[in-house]
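Regression report. Comparing outputs from two consecutive submissions.

Submission 1:
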Amino acid sequence: MIDIRKLTKTYVMGDNVIHALGGVSLTIGRGEHVAIVGPSGSGKSTLMNVLGGLDRPTAGDYRFEDDPVADYDDDELASFRNRRIGFVFQSFQLLPRLTAVQNVELPMIYAGIPAAERRDRAVALLERVGLGDRLANKPTQMSGGQQQRVAIARALANAPDLLLADEPTGALDTATGQEVLALFDELNSQGLTLCIVTHDNEVAARARRRIAFRDGHIVSDDRNVG
């Protein structure tokens, strides 16, 4: 599914040049469950941003099922993000004035899905993540774990090919975090490709593949861990 070759990402900050990615080459197959680990500043979040089309590489090639993502213009990149990638973040990033259903509907609005279909799909997704009784609740009326489940349902709204999660349990207590990770395991078992960026070894241990970054480079790539 994912094929990146000699990918670099450089940031210029004043007189300093930051080499966030230093010529990374990597493939990820459809249906894989991958954990990307490393200390702060190692390049793992930069890689996730490039994979999800949130940022562009400075150089190198990125192909998603043979499509040249690195060459996309802004409109093509926005469409790629909306239709093929689902994002889950540590901070949930729900809109506080919207209900759970309305938050899940948002990506479908941008994709041009008709209103009735949006509603039906949002309700079905919230039921799928165990929130069928919270459809009309706003984020402030839900626990952290429930908010993250809404965020996961939103990430699934346009049936993405790849789900990217950045520290998805970082704001949750241990028990709630385990519930969210079990949901990820279930989604992956149903065929969804899953890539989790984390510094938590317990989270990484649940993945079937663990890729470690340091100073913008891959230092290990281990399969069948956990």
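Submission 2:
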Amino acid sequence: MGSDPQYASFPNMLLAQHIFTLRQPNLTTYHPSAHRALLSSIEEHSQAPLYRYLAHPTDGIVPSTIQWDESKYNELKQKNTEELERYDKELEEAKETAGESEIVAAMGKKAEFWARVGDKDKALEAYEELLLKTASTGAKIDIVLAMIRLQMFFDDKHGVAKNIDRAQRLVESGGDWDRRNRLKSYNGLHLLTIRNFAEAAHPLLDALSTFTSTEICPYSHLVLYAVLAGTVSLNRVDFKKKVLDSAEVLGILGSKPIPAAGGSSDDLMDVADTEGYESLETLINSIYVCDYQNLFKALAEVETTFLSRDRLLAEHKTWFVREMRRRAYSQLLESYRVVSLQNMADSFGVSVDWLDRDLSKFIPSKQLNCTIDRVNGVIETNRPDDKNRQYAEVIKHGDQLLTKLQKYGQKVRLTGMERA
């Protein structure tokens, strides 16, 4: 295992969840505790830039929730200035009297200072300067991972993608085992935020047995993300092997009560325990054993308990719920050539009219291969014949190849004529 990671203390990713909570009108129950947690952090760490980012009357993202106090901001800013002067003095002295390691250490303190107080641009700039001065590959990876966390904190998906690519190149050029595994978690969470659940499932599930990246999320949250990504994307065999039978998943998913609606923000997604994971357990078991009534109930609970409240999952909530319904419908229809609308509605615990409307969202786009016969009250599946599909693909690719060859032949003939 490699050495302990550097620059891993800041930013505190839990604060990003509190910020998300304050921005959601449907989570007003949790606003007071999120408000207290943020103000406490701002006071404790003198986070003037973060305070301005949140509360400024014109530039702040939650000015209606966190009250702006100009004198308080000036006081925090003065503390930042004094602390920064000490770091600048230490850096100058290191440049004059000490060696490269002391200079790098001083630069690292300054970069961590900007990350701690919540100034994204200055922190990234300081980390870039530190990266150029750092010789060790392991330390360089730690710096890039710190930059990724900063960009995740401020929801800069483009910046995260660029730095994950950079970290991947560094890891391939000489990263140790621990940093390789930490990068899996970072990459999986990023893929989750851009709604690439299929690609996210593999690094997230792989990271479960070797997880050490507690600076980015608690282990129980990683299990949540890995299970959701795997449930919505893996085929039945891989789902059974990597999710249902996973020792890491089984160790977290237990029959625990769902958090009460009047709980604190710490009951929200700061759940280092496994509160509320009973619904997740029911969800994955129900989809596998085809218990569709309990699946729909568990899906509603998972939406309320996790999808609506988590900053990484919330924007994908509607898509995830819709995709899980489509997956369940497809799984049932694969077993029948013709199925009664009433029987299928009973299986899912919904009305025939509701099922008809919901299926109609998937059939026109070929997400479900079936047709609805309301006159006879049945659903007919029309699974495409595999051989015919393969034949159509061969014809399609063959036509494309012939077109390219014809264009190439014309170009060759023209070139020959010019020579003549």
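Expected: both submissions complete independently.
Actual: both completed, but the second showed a warning that disappeared on reload.
Relevant detail on submission 2: The longest helix spans residues 386-419.
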